[in-house]
Amino acid sequence: MVMAYMISDKCDACGKCKEVCPVEAIAKGEKKYAIDAETCVNCGQCVDECSSEAIAEV
Ligand code: SF4
Ligand code: SF4
Q1: Measuring from atom 8 of ligand 2, which residue has the nearest CA?
Q2: Residue 33's CB: how many other CB atoms inside 10 A?
Q3: For the chain, what is the mean pLDDT?
Q4: Those residues with Cβ within 8 angstroms of residue 7's Cβ, 6 or more apart along the chain or in another chain
Q5: Residue 2's pLDDT band (boundaries 50, 70, 90)?
Q6: What are the boundaries of each domain within the chain?
Q7: Would you say residue 1 has pLDDT above 60?
Q8: Ligand 1 contact via 21 beta carbon (within 6 Å)
Q9: 34-55 residue pLDDT tens
């Protein structure tokens, strides 16, 4: 089963999640950050780092 994390519109583009991602699955988009589901290994570290609670499992 493929699990993935998604970044919602609550993202304020602080960039903290990108810093902790071990596989560089997070990149800055136009208004918010986004997770590449193909690269993400579902470690969950970005969820703990996000103070805006913008990252959730889907
Ligand atoms: S840590 Fe949260 S608010 Fe900051 S860039 Fe990542 S998803 Fe957006
Ligand atoms: S769950 Fe882990 S691998 Fe996936 S985007 Fe977040 S920090 Fe990166």
Answers
A1: 21
A2: 22
A3: 94
A4: 17, 26, 32, 33, 34, 35, 54, 55
A5: low
A6: 5-57
A7: no
A8: no
A9: 999 999 999 999 999 999 999 9
DSSP string, 9-58: TT-----HHHHH-TT--EEE-SSSEEE-TTT-----HHHHH-TT--EEE-
**Ligand with the closest atom to the CA of 26:** 2
Class of domain 5-57: alpha beta
**Model pTM greater than 0.90?**
yes
Query: Residue 2 C-alpha to ligand 1 middle, in angstroms?
Result: 22
